[in-house]
User: Fold this.
Amino acid sequence: MEFPRIPLGDWIEGSLNWLTSEYSIVTRGISRVTQTGIDGLNDALMWLPDWSLLVIIVALCWWVANSRLAIGAALGLLLIWNLGLWDPMIETLTLVVIATLVAVVIALPVGITAALSERLYRIIMPILDFMQTMPAFVYLIPAIPFFGIGSVSAIFATVIFSMPPAIRFTTLGIRQVPVELVEAADAYGATRSQKLIKVQLPMSLPTVMAGINQTIMLALSMVVIAAMIGADGLGSEVWRAIQRLRPGDGFEAGIAVVILAMILDRVTQSLRKQRKT
Assistant:
């Protein structure tokens, strides 16, 4: 006895077609705004001389962390410049920054609400589990019919892919605030918003920063994968090397991605340690 096949793929495809046709005006508006932001930030970073941007990044690493990170960042960035990958690195950094900002702006309110509402918490946790176990390549599929080929689709896929850790860690941080502190705030007559702003958020900030760190790392990995749908940057260099069977070029671009990831990771971790102290 054979059971009929559930046409799940047909249902999803039909839903995507309906959404793209019904909300094309909205998606075009989002696409224009996003592309303007990408071009603006990218042009601003490109406008700076290579040496000045390098000095700014190194100074930031020194100020946020220590001289060891600053020296390592300087050596890594000089290597990227020497390999001729400076412009692709800036394009990748632009996509990561914009995607992370959008993801955090969406994730923080959702995480705070889920921490304060038990009903929403029970609803959103399985959704986050589903999102975090879904293969990264799948997120590229709905991006194309909504926004077409290019950097906007990469931002869309990257935001969806990198958002769950920020939501999860924000919720976790607020829910782990000691009950005694919350009760003390209640005893002093603090309102719900005062408890959130003055007690729960400051106490949970290190955990929230850990979630933002994970979001940045996931955004960087997804931006590289998104080269398959036309995203510029180091990912496109890797993809071009694969297509042309040039492993050396691919490894050079991969090393540049690793350097950028290490700088972003160490900077955000240093910020997190500062918040703890």
Remarks:
- The mean pLDDT is 85.
- Residues 91-274 form a domain with the MetI-like fold fold (CATH 1.10.3720.10).
- The longest helix spans residues 192-225.
